[in-house]
């Protein structure tokens, strides 16, 4: 790595960026300019960003339970280039930067062109659970990868970690805290290993210096959190801070204890990543025995599994990719070509299937959106700011395509039974807003969202259009009489 010139490193990054854009055009369903699908979590983040640009207060006027960083990113991208291109381009730059750091990590262990092997394994680990694109796990990859790179380089090269690097580690932790705090397991485990190692071995990193380093990390973390809070306070006042704390932290404690739905493929994903982790760790401890790096890698894997909990969706496993890069790079010189082939095949076997399904699914929602778009175009311009969405993701997707945000606060109705505060707020909002239009996923006569008064709705609203019958996903458009 040290022998690569600055020009050469830029060449590596530009090549990585080109490769990143190529596969993300096919796989990042919710933001690729080639597709029409708006995503699930991704469309929620896009709506939050759009709402901020329209002067609405995040968490108060439009609610979600992730940290504000992902909303700032989506708002910035839509402000920079409205539509899908701005978000797609920044997303690709982010993933390219992540991949470049993986190349730097691999270069600590592997020389010349062989660095591609652990990087490709890391990309396969990521691509296997890449779903929509624009997820908190993907925006977390850069700070996670940077933290691992700093600590791994320290143990490999014996180079002291600078105060600047410790500060940036703290900032990285702050970014992940305000994305999705569960994603922070691997960096925290690396800090733990670093601390215990230098305390137990009595190295040149004396306890006082070690304490100073931890204080600098904490200062970096606090600095980022403080800047975010100041921005929110400056834009939205003290109520903005209060609602942000509720959405990012308080609601999530309620969410953790609630009996919510889990991914249908959860067991398969847990089994796959459990198997690959077991194979990699077995090879590491058989070939490398018990080393500090092996302990760090194992702890990062275990910590990440614990942080996922038992309700993990497939995309949660994206955070395993940086750890897998470190593990396979460290393993490279200790295993033969057949063992390398085994590890490669473990991750590669499902990749062609992933691309096949992606290619066939890029425009599968075209008919659904065409019919819904026509219904939106029939709504007068003056009424478009008074559309109540009771159709969750499908309703959000249709609104987002037209640069609209819903009139109600809660975007995902499964959140309402979890929080009395949200349920009360939604009922009060319906009475106060008295929306002109309602988009529903089912006819009101059969089932009504918890946030609505069924008698009032069926009496005061008339069905104007039904879309999506040909696509198998219906939307019902009601207008106030």
Task: Explain what the structure shows.
- This protein is 63% helix and 4% strand.
- The protein has 481 residues and is mainly alpha-helical.
- A hairpin with a 7-residue loop joins strand 3 (461-467) and strand 4.
- The protein has a 4-stranded mixed beta sheet with strand order 1-2-4-3.
- The chain contains 18 helices and 4 strands.
Quick summary:
This protein is mostly helical and 481 residues long.
Cα gyration radius (Å): 24 Å
Structural class assignment = mainly alpha
Count of helix runs: 18
Give unreliable regions as ranges. Answer: none
**Main sheet: strand order:** 1-2-4-3
Overall body shape: globular
The description of the largest β-sheet is:
4 strands, mixed
N-to-C SSE string, H for helix and E for strand: HHHHHHHHHHHHHHHEHHEHEE
Give the strand tally. Answer: 4
User: What is the helix content?
Assistant: 55-70%
Please render the helix and strand layout as text.
Elements: H1 6-27, H2 41-53, H3 69-80, H4 85-109, H5 116-127, H6 136-157, H7 163-177, H8 185-201, H9 207-256, H10 266-287, H11 292-308, H12 321-331, H13 337-348, H14 351-361, H15 366-377, E1 387-390, H16 392-401, H17 420-433, E2 437-440, H18 454-460, E3 461-467, E4 475-480
Parallel strand pairs: 1-2
Antiparallel strand pairs: 2-4, 3-4
């Amino acid at each position: 790595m040290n022998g690569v010139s600055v020009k050469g490193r830029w060449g590596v990054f530009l090549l990585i960026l080109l490769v990143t854009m190529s596969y993300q055009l096919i796989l990042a369903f919710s933001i690729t300019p080639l597709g029409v699908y708006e995503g699930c979590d991704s469309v929620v983040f896009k709506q939050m960003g759009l709402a901020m640009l329209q002067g609405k207060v995040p968490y108060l006027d439009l609610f979600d339970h992730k940290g504000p960083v992902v909303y700032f990113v989506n708002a910035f991208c839509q402000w920079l280039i409205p539509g899908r291109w701005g978000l797609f381009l920044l997303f690709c730059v982010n993933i390219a930067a992540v991949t470049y750091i993986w190349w730097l990590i691999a270069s600590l262990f592997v020389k010349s062109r062989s660095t591609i092997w652990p990087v490709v394994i890391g990309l396969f680990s990521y691509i296997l659970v890449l779903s929509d694109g624009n997820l908190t796990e993907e925006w977390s990859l850069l700070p996670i990868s940077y933290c691992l790179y700093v600590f791994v380089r320290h143990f490999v090269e014996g180079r002291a970690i600078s105060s600047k690097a410790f500060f940036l580690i703290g900032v990285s932790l702050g970014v992940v805290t305000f994305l999705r705090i569960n994603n922070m397991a691997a960096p925290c485990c690396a800090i733990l290993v670093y601390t215990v190692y230098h305390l137990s071995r009595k190295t040149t990193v004396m306890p006082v210096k070690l304490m100073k380093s931890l204080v600098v990390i904490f200062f970096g973390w606090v600095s980022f959190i403080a800047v975010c809070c100041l921005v929110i306070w400056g834009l939205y006042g003290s109520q903005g801070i209060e609602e942000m704390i509720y959405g990012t932290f308080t609601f999530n404690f309620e969410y953790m204890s609630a009996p919510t739905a889990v991914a249908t493929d959860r067991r398969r994903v847990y089994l796959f990543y459990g198997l690959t982790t077991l194979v990699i760790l077995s090879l590491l401890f058989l070939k490398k025995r018990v080393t500090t790096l092996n302990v760090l890698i194992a702890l990062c894997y275990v910590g990440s599994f614990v942080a996922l909990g038992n309700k993990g969706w497939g995309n949660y496993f994206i955070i395993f990719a940086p750890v897998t890069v470190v593990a396979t790079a460290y393993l490279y010189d200790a295993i033969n070509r057949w063992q390398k082939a085994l590890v490669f095949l473990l991750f590669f076997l499902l990749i062609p299937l992933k691309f096949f399904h992606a290619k066939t699914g890029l425009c599968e929602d075209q008919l659904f959106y065409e019919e819904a778009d026509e219904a939106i175009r029939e709504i007068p311009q003056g009424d478009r700011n008074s559309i109540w969405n009771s159709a969750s993701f499908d309703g959000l997707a249709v609104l987002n395509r037209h640069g609209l945000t819903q009139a109600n606060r809660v975007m995902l109705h499964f959140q309402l039974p979890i929080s009395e505060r949200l349920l009360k707020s939604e009922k009060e909002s319906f009475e106060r807003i008295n929306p002109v239009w309602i988009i529903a996923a089912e006819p009101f006569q059969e089932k009504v969202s918890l946030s609505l008064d069924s008698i009032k709705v069926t009496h005061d609203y008339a069905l104007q259009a039904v879309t999506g019958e040909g696509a198998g996903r219906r939307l019902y458009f009601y207008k106030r009489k």
